[in-house]
Amino acid sequence: MRLGCVTYNILKDMTVEEIIKILEATGFEAVELRTEHKHGVEPSISKEEREKVRRRFAQSKVRLLSYGTTCEFHSPDPAVRRKHIETGKRFVDLAHDTGAWGVKVRPNALPKEAPRETTIANIGGALRELGDYAARFGIEIWMEVHGRDTSDPPVAAAILKAASHAAVGACWNSNAADVVNGSVKPSFELLKPYMKSVHINELPNEKYPYRELFTLLKQSGYDRYCLCECQESKEPERFLRYYRALWREMCR
């Protein structure tokens, strides 16, 4: 496993150059650029700007791993889902042009006005369409385990089963809902077949069994990235150095 960082929120006010500089200095190996942050790497940028981003990361020690979008497919309204699918496709294009591996999307809820099974099928269908598009470019779609009710691992697993696409998988999100009787193992077993990315947050949180999570990931053969997703710090470089040291100790 390797350690990376999400720009949400500790890096949200940094440019691409500043992000690369601080992650290289602190030993982080990858970054997920979350939409609407200062880095400005969005589907709206030009072909020339995309090539510049690709070259800059290629010249650095930091991998441009993924894009963190707010694309979500739980709405009962087909027009709303269609809009988010098309936005997702534009992020796939951006990922291809800039050398990223994945595009992170999310559900945000199970709407009360629609049957649970219908929403699961709607999200799964949208993910499958986006997966078809992404696979043409060698890009993956990572569904964040996120949102009211949809962050429950059994629901997330049902959505991914409905999607049933090799290019579509889970982005584990280290939610309180993962923990069952003090353990994440039952939740992990549900999502293990789909695991493509992992978000981790406050490692000193004693209510979340991170050491167990890292053991389960290693035992499963997971050889991808764990991405720090933490709140802002007045001393981000100092914080990230401590974070990496703690992560390495907890992964031993």
Query: Which secondary-structure class do the elements indicate?
Result: alpha/beta
Strand-residue proportion:
15-25%
Binned, the helix content reads 40-55%
Low-confidence parts lasting 5 or more residues at pLDDT below 50? none
Number of strands: 8
In N-to-C order, the SSE pattern is: EHEHEHEHEHEHEHEH
What is the subunit organization of this protein? single chain
| Overall average pLDDT | 98
The dominant shape is globular
Arrangement of strands in the largest sheet: 1-2-3-4-5-6-7-8
Total of helices: 8
Radius of gyration: 17 Å
Largest sheet: 8 strands, parallel, barrel
CA distance, first residue to last residue? 11 Å
Notes on the protein architecture:
The chain is an alpha/beta fold and 252 residues long. Helix content is 42%, strand content 16%. It is built from eight helices and eight strands, in the order E-H-E-H-E-H-E-H-E-H-E-H-E-H-E-H. The chain has helices spanning 16-26, 47-58, 78-98, 116-135, 153-163, 185-191, 210-219, 236-250; strands at residues 2-6, 30-34, 63-68, 102-105, 140-144, 168-172, 195-200, 225-228. Strands 1-2-3-4-5-6-7-8 form an eight-stranded parallel barrel, surrounded by five helices. Strand 6 (168-172), helix 6 and strand 7 form a beta-alpha-beta unit. Helix 3 packs parallel to helix 4 and helix 4 (116-135) crosses helix 5 (153-163). It is globular, with a radius of gyration of 17 Å. The N and C termini lie close together (11 Å). The mean pLDDT is 98.
